[in-house]
Amino acid sequence: NFDHFQILRAIGKGSFGKVCIVQKKDTKKMYAMKYMNKLKCVERNEVRNVLKELQIMQNLEHPFLVNFWYSFQDEEDMFMVVDLLLGGDLRYHLQQNVHFSESTVKLYISELALALGYLRTKRIIHRDIKPDNILLDEHGHVHLTDFNIAAIVKEDLKATSIAGTKPYMAPELFQTFEGSHPGYSFSVDWWSLGITAYELLRGQRPYVMRSSTPANEILQTFHKVHPSYPAAWSLEMKSLLRKLLCIDVQKRISCLAELQDLDYMSDVNWDAVLSKLLPPGFIPNRRRLNCDPTFELEEMILESKPLHKKKKRLARKTKDQGSDGSPQNGQLQQRLDNVQRDFIVFNREKSKKAVDSDSSELSTTEKNKAIEDGQNNNVEPVAFLSG
């Protein structure tokens, strides 16, 4: 629970809540803790997405994901504790005018492709791949985060609900919205990867659109505008981006095997990529926190219910039950009670210990059985001979 962690500082703000650095008191390990106010989530109808994200993330673990460790709740908030990655997100570095070399972007594509390959085995479409959702670790390797609009698709079925960030959404998503397409699948994430890679190389996206641009206008843009590729980029990189940004889904690179088959990728040692043995060309500054410093000021000064004062606040609230003036009408209270009931409590550390314990017991059982078999084998020939 909340008391098992020491709050160190605020580092970010997402669509569903805020993020701070925490240290687990017993192990001294550092994590990022995302906390989401229950009342705000209920009022904005975001509870379902939060619970879905918890459900998805507890079944995932991969070197290029931001892995989920713990979840818990109190009266006010829902908490998710995940890997701490202090290298900042790629949006932050783009805003800092970082120039990403072609070799660095090629490695990012390789690492993210392995993550997408893994997600496909779990039948998960991320649906929101963009620089904002790609975090760097201290060595410069990428980690995909934010599964709150991800979709799980059953075998041979397509997704039909519309979700994502418009400038990164694939054409078939808009066609599905317009009713001219039967749905979409994993290919939408590969389109988003192509848009992201292009933006990292050029500092701008290949298509100009905003969150307010209507779907029909966006579809016209895809057919009228042909992305330009600077002469300085290698022919191989341009070819790769064209294959990722192919409007025809059937011709687009849409899985890990198709990417690995490209001549441009023939020199990639995929085992080395997975083991993070290939050094990225860009390493974040380790002497500074790679995030906007105003997050800390907001938490300490502007936040009406700052996290570091939570313990005192909850104690006072218990003492003065119901006198805080919050809108606790019957229907709202029922929805808050449902959040309390449906919330998924998770502890990966405990799960890992249980698995280790089971495998240890299994190996002991197998060892004893082997000894027993060995003893039986020693006995049987004697019995056979004496027979």
UniProtKB/TrEMBL annotation:
Residues at which ATP binds: K34
Species this protein is from: Eleginops maclovinus (Patagonian blennie)
GO MF terms held by the record: ATP binding; G protein-coupled receptor binding; G protein-coupled receptor kinase activity
Protein's name according to its UniProt entry: Protein kinase domain-containing protein
UniProt biased composition (Polar residues): 323-334
Membrane spanning residue stretches: none
Keyword set includes Phosphoprotein: no
InterPro entries attached to this UniProt entry: Kinase-like_dom_sf, Prot_kinase_dom, Protein_kinase_ATP_BS, Ser/Thr_kinase_AS
